[in-house]
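Reminder to self: tokens first, then the designed residues, so the page reads top to bottom the way the pipeline ran.
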């Protein structure tokens, strides 16, 4: 059983979907959780679920594409929790379309929320982790950051960038005992994939060796492992959680 008792985690985009499941999974293992989301109501609802598990939680409304929001969020987190042991950069969006029709603002928005956010959060949190000489950062990338996907130039570029950021920070922070890894989910059943038609979902599932979409808990369990002491000698890695889609 993985134990995170006494650890304090910050999870972005934790109001719903994969982020919510990550927050609850870390809490079940004993961690206290700062629940960040753009939507204050959903952040509060996940925070209440964490508290119902007997852990401390703080809802933190934050737009992760804005440096000032992130600075305020980390300062509010630190006012409640004495350490920041685990950062999960999970918040992400899609604005799909073939490149010839993709608007420049959709490129900019996806890169800002999916990639720049992780740069800003890591930068803000690194000061605390470096001082403590311990920490775990887990970035939620995607298999499309590894293999590309027609109609997702902005999204796949943001996730490939996140993988590059992960490996670079793993190297920069290794001597400070901070491990930085990424999880690359395949197709997971959340609001993000709810937009797909039943036919598209069936087509997708047929390409997955395990013949089904994944669940948020499948991703959360990989994050739990990487956030725990069991992964102390693992850094700069990308773990696909995809039913065998990428191998
Ligand atoms: P989701 O259900 O759409 O949830 C995304 C969460 O991020 C929402 O709570 C959303 O808040 C929050 N968010 C969006 N923009 C934000 C911002 N600017 N600041 C703070 N929070 C923000 O998506 P999901 O499927 O759980 O995806 C979570 C992560 O996994 C994303 O990084 C995604 O790219 C990645 N992923 C998902 C899949 C999949 O198949 N689902 C596959 C690969 C990777 P609101 O509720 O306010 O919008």
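Designed residues (247 positions):
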């Amino acid at each position: 059983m993985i134990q995170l008792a006494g650890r304090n985690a910050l999870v972005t985009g934790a109001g719903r979907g994969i982020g919510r499941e990550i927050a609850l999974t870390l809490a079940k293992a004993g961690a206290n959780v700062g629940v960040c989301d753009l939507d204050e109501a959903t952040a509060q609802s996940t925070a209440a679920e964490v508290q119902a598990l007997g852990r401390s939680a703080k809802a933190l409304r934050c737009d992760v594409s804005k440096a000032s929001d992130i600075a305020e969020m980390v300062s509010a987190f630190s006012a409640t929790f004495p350490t920041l042991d685990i950062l999960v950069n999970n918040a992400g969006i899609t604005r799909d379309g073939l490149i010839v029709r993709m608007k420049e603002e959709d490129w900019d928005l996806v890169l800002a929320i999916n990639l720049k956010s992780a740069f800003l959060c890591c930068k803000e949190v690194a000061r605390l982790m470096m001082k403590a000489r311990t920490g775990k950062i887990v970035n939620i990338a995607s298999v499309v950051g590894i293999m590309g996907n027609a109609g997702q130039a902005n999204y796949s570029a943001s996730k490939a960038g996140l993988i590059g950021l992960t490996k670079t920070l793993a190297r920069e922070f290794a001597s400070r005992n901070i491990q930085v890894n990424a999880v690359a989910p395949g197709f997971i059943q959340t609001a993000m994939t709810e937009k797909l038609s039943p036919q598209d979902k069936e087509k997708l599932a047929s390409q997955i060796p395990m013949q089904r979409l994944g669940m948020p808990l499948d991703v959360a369990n990989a994050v739990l492992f990487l956030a725990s002491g069991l992964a102390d000698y693992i850094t700069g890695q990308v773990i696909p959680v995809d039913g065998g889609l990428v191998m």
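The pocket of NAP is lined by residues 12-13, 15-19, 37-39, 42, 62-65, 90-93, 113, 140, 142, 185, 187-188, 190-193 (CB under 6 Å).
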